[in-house]
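User: Can you write out an input/output pair for a complex, sequences first and structure second?

Assistant: Here is one pair. Inputs:
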Amino acid sequence: MDAWIRLQDVAGRLSAISRSHRYDPYQIFDWPESLPADAYWMSPELMTCHSTAVWDELTEAQRVVLSHHEAASFFSLNVHLIRDLIGEVTHRIYSTRYPGLSEFFHDFIAEENVHAWFFATFCRRYGRLYPARSVSLGSAPTDGMLADIAVFGRILIAEELCDFFNMKMADDDRLPPIARQVNRVHHEDESRHIAFGRQIMRALCEGAGGRVDPEGLAAVGGYLARYVTTCLRSFYNPQVYADAGLPDPTGLRARVIRDPGREAAHRAGLGRTVRFLDRIGLLDPAQVRW
Amino acid sequence: MDHPWPAEFEAQLRLHCRLLGESEALDPGAPLPELGVDSLAVVELIVQLEDAFEVSFPDEALTPEVFATPVTVWRAVQRLLPAGAAERRTAEPVLPGAN
């Protein structure tokens, strides 16, 4: 079956599931007044200092406090990634390049809007919504199909990375129930988005063969390899370390980013995604700086 | 060409100027995108400048206007440095084609 026909079929089935599983985000969460100060709000194994020399230097109490700010930071990153992808998908919702996908795009945008709301609500109730530490210079690929491959590749990378965290935390009973629930609800919706994301990437790459300049396609692969690194680096926020009361937050970031113990965590989060992008002929794993 | 910044700044910036040859001079007024610096590179550049100069860019400094050209970025770093530190660092020589 042609990849585009398969994509439309998958999108139709995912939309049907989405509409039959619709929930009211304003009803399903029972937000407590506060969260226990002595509990982890983020799984320690997922925190940025884990498996580093810095982690060994932290007391248990410092790790717990850091987990509160890292949870808010992780949810804030989700909000900013969602803002980016809603904009890109909205821009393409009735594009003639995607006949038959408009219904799915409507469901996708609706769900992502809800996700941004509950992530931001968690941050604003129990911590802060950390601003994005990025600057838009608008220099991503802009040519039609290559731009689409870059955009949907970016979306897939961000979604698979966040979903890796969501899956782990949804079942982590060290976390307060509301933290687990936010992660679980997001994971349940994201599994559909990721299924779609992989299918559209297959279709786009298959369609690109012979229609786009191979050098342009290789440049998009290089761009996405750099995006993997940028995504991983964005978790290391000195403001988070400062809010947790840790000394020399910028120096601490430099230490943990350089710590060889972090590479395994990065590969655990995005190794599968990189291998998928390699299988569809888009990204050379050797280009990724882990 | 006289550089208004220290060698360390130029070395960090050049790492991200993918369209600038090793022997080419870095034009202080060149738009960063024309030098090959894109949105992804800026995220890394921010981290590297913060580490190298032991400063922290406030959120309001993370704008396209600040990250417009080499000289606008350097001015932002200068504003974050303690008094006198920028002058001391600028006195360090910039080697031709430093990277």
